[in-house]
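Hello again, I could really use a second opinion on something today. I've been staring at a protein lately and its backbone has me curious. Please have a think about how the structure follows from the sequence. I owe you a coffee for this, so here goes:
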Amino acid sequence: MTASPNPALRQVISSDQIQKRIRELGRQISDDYRGQTIMALGILENGFMFIADLVRVLEGPVVCTFIKPRYKESKQGEAPLLEIFFSHELPIEGKHILLVEGLVHSGVTTEYLMSDLRARGAASVKLATLLDRQSARRVPLQPDYFGFLVDDAFLCGYGLGSPEQTGRNLPYLATTT
């Protein structure tokens, strides 16, 4: 394991492990979508590094765009509202959508997004995630493609982290010690 520049962080998945797994996922996804155009829909912020590396190893035509789910404050006592921001208005109907996430946690937002894309007429909707935290799942959601199963530890690096924290730029995944 490579030492982290931040002594409070401990590397748990190396850059080499990540890249090897992405190449494996790329072969599997390319085989599954052979002869079709993939619309890769990256979920910001946590998925930006994963989608960048993943689309580079996919064979065949790929259209790449991004969405940013955001929870909007609601009236007291009501559930928060979910707003979805697309990079531009996307023509979804008849497209093969590959939703790309850095981490699937509860699955609530992901399930909502997938249902919304299907309702808008997508030909197919599949989910690829670098990290799958099944222990936190609140809905019966299973990614079609995943890189690594992870536990409940907070991970940062390789695009993951919180807005107020450094570490998203690390080429590997780390946890606090």
About this structure: The chain has one domain: 14-30+37-70+80-153. Residues 14-30+37-70+80-153 form a domain with the Rossmann fold fold (CATH 3.40.50.2020). Residues 72 and 97 are 25 Å apart (CA to CA).
